Amino acid sequence: MALKKLLKWCGIALGGVLVLGLLAVLAVFGITEWQLSRTFEVAATPIAVPEDPAALKEGRRLAALRGCNGGCHGPEGAGRVFFEVPDGSRVIAANLSQVADDYSDAELARVIRHGVRPDGTSVFGAMPSEMFNGLTDGDTARIIAWMRSLPAGNTELPETRFGPMLRGMMLYFQREGFEPLAAAGIEHDAGPLPRGDDPVARGRYLALTVCTECHGSDLAGMSVGLAAPSLEIAKAYSPEAFDKLMIEGLALGDREVGIMSSVSRGRFAHFTAQERADLFAFLQAR
Predict the structure, then answer these.
(1) Sign of the alpha-carbon torsion through 15, 17, 23, 29
(2) How far is residue 123's CA from residue 143's CA, in Å, rounded to a whole number?
(3) How far apart are CA 145 and CA 11, in angstroms?
(4) Rounded to an integer, what distance in angstroms lies between the CA atom of residue 70 and that of residue 85?
């Protein structure tokens, strides 16, 4: 009799745990589904997109510098699986030539700088629209010009899939202060950043539209995700050492420094010499 009672209570306890687990899964799904279907009221304003060869060439460089070309979206923006986890969840970085076919110039500017699709929903937080929000109209227009110059894409990509693990990650990072939706973390009325005329002002514009993706909006570093350090670390560099880090990806002592090394070689090597000098000037003056 005692054994029967024990088994009965064990069964009740197990059933209770299963019910609580099911409720937790349903709660996670419900919250994240609401987030993914949330819409944002951001106007798609006209933007003048150039077509001359010089603008296309500069747009390609700007896209490479900011990870659109050869970075998150793969070589020449052809798209790729950005990341996936064992439960089948995956985030796809879209084929940009296909996106350019489907979006107007104003809609492209809005999704780049505000993270908002034509239907009002937000792109996933892996898209650094919060960083791109400060891009000038000119830089944004040249990137769009490059996108429109891409050959028709024929890359077959799977769809983004939000399984339990990815939905759980969304809530975890939100708890740590990082929005899972790109549009949710943006001051949409702020407008483009001033570029300025002096080296420090020009460097500030570069830092805030290139570096904040990993080092945080205040450049003070981030403790989760990539765990990038504060850019106060740049004060330890000479101009020559800083150039070596930006071009070759080698930190002080000729060290490889993880993703920074690969990002420098793949993206930051596209800085001009003047841009490197301006960025260095700003980081030293902070």
Answers:
(1) negative
(2) 18
(3) 64
(4) 22
Alpha carbons 27 and 22: distance in angstroms, whole number: 9
pTM of the model: 0.88
82 DSSP 8-state letter: E
In angstroms, the CA 49 to CA 47 distance is 6
- Residue identified by tokens 């084929």 is 95
pLDDT at 11 over 90: no
Query: Measured between alpha carbons, how far is 75 from 73 in angstroms, rounded to an integer?
Result: 7
pLDDT tens, residue by residue, 160-208: 999 999 999 889 888 877 888 999 989 999 989 999 899 999 999 999 9
DSSP 160-221: PB--HHHHHHHHHHHHTT--SBGGGG--TTS-PPP--SSHHHHHHHHHHHHTHHHH-TTSS-
pLDDT digit string, tens, across residues 212-247:
999 999 999 987 666 789 999 999 999 999 999 999
